[in-house]
Amino acid sequence: MPNNTLAKLLVIVSFAALAACHDNDSLSVDEGSGGTLASGLQTLDSSGVEREFFLILPDDPIEGLTASAVGDPPLLFTFHGYTGSLNNWVGENRVYDFIDVVGDEAVIVVPNGLPDGSGDRVWGGTEDLDFFLDIIAYLDAAGVAYDPNRIFVAGHSNGAGFTHEIGCTFGDIVRGIVTAAGGLVNNDCLGSTAVFMMQGSNDPLTNGNIAAGARNYWALYNGWETDVFETTADGLCVDHTIADRTANLPYPVFWCSHEQGHDWPDFGSEAAWAFLSSLPNAAPTPDEPAGGGVDRAKPPSDTSLFVQIEVPVDAPRPLAAAISLRNPSFVDNPTCSSPDVILNGRASVDGILVPGEVSDPVEFPITYFTFGGTVEFPSEWALSITIYVEGGSSSVIPTPGIDYDVTVPLAVIDRNTVINIPEVLTLVPVQDLCGFGS
Predict the structure, then answer these.
(1) Which of 6, 339, 397, 431 is the most buried (most CB within 10 A)?
(2) How far is 416 from 367, CA to CA, in rounded Å?
(3) Tens of pLDDT, residues 285-328
């Protein structure tokens, strides 16, 4: 490791340790000489909430250049997983070495997620998308020099799912994303983004089929094919690039399968930074990649689910619902795992489900998201309905003990058969199956 990088990391550790000791304190912007930003913990008001992020500036920033000047470094965001914090990236006992690998080659932003109802930090709400934009505006206002054509985002686990969301929502801003152990829920994407995905073949938390669905969505969206790819020179990944589709070359899709479980793999940092660093220059665009886009990648709605739901009288106000399929054994023996098939994203139930009442039959459009090849007809499943409540989670991960769910056996007949659940389903608080609260 270069001496200047090592020295800077020692400074990072001291800042991160200070942040860990003062998580609840009011923190001001750390300024260097002349009132410009310096590396360290920063705070800003975003959506009416004081938010934190750790900023790492290269040792020798190029002064006097505008943000669009040639030679400015990339801007790299990194997002921690559920229950984690920015210390996972920059703390003394950090679990990822990505920033060590990047060193002085980028302006690095390491944000903190907001605590959910259990006090665990999580990503995924609209306020987090606003936070991402607010950080960029904060850096711009402070005159931080970076290349706007090279804004990169990386994340692990829940942070990987949020990274997918950022790449999908802000494809007109973000040049490339890196994800480890995360899936894409939003299928209405914008712009053009390069994608590098890592997924453990024996990951017990992020279902491989969900991750594979993200892989295939991005391959189709970026103008490639799901079944056409070549192994990379290092043998670690496969590359969906098709050489004669020259208009699409700035937006490759890499898929890197490994056997290291729900982890940021040991090869991940070097491989991911090599991927991001090698991307050809391309200005941000709201346009979809040639021959790709939402119409090509988004699966159509297959049918509808109709169900009546009883909400306990002491439950907070229900806001949204997500429908998924799990292994049939999940009904009697629930385990810490992600769903096998996501049938819909977060659908609003505000005003439709009311505490202390049984709803009228509620219709949920559903899609058998079969990119992972997981649904056969007919087949047996466990139907899982998750209800996100006021004060609960704003991400796809429900808050144990605060959000609600219910799971029942389900026989799937064929793709287009309407599903009517004959009995009223009563919600119960989400269990802490993964020990997040322990």
Answers:
(1) 397
(2) 10
(3) 999 999 999 999 988 889 999 999 999 999 999 999 999 999 99
Burial of 237 (0-12, 13-18, 19+ CB in 10 A): buried
DSSP string, 131-182: HHHHHHHHHHHTT----TT-EEEEEETHHHHHHHHHHHHTBTT-SEEEEES-
What is the residue whose two structure tokens read 């605590």? 115
- Determine contact, residues 372/365, Cβ cutoff 8 Å: no
Q: Which residue has the tokens 């800003």?
A: 44
Separation between Cα atoms, residue 117 and residue 108, nearest integer Å: 29
CA distance 221 to 289: 7
Judge whether residue 70 has pLDDT over 60: no
pLDDT in tens, 124-144: 989 999 999 999 999 999 999
Q: Alpha-carbon distance 269 to 99, whole Å? A: 8
Considering only CA atoms, give the Rg of the chain: 22
List of E strands, 73-147: 75-79, 107-111, 114-115, 121-122
**Are 344 and 385 contacting, i.e. CB atoms less than 8 angstroms apart?**
no
Of 55, 287, 79, 265, residue with least CA distance to 177: 79
d(CA 50, CA 28): 10
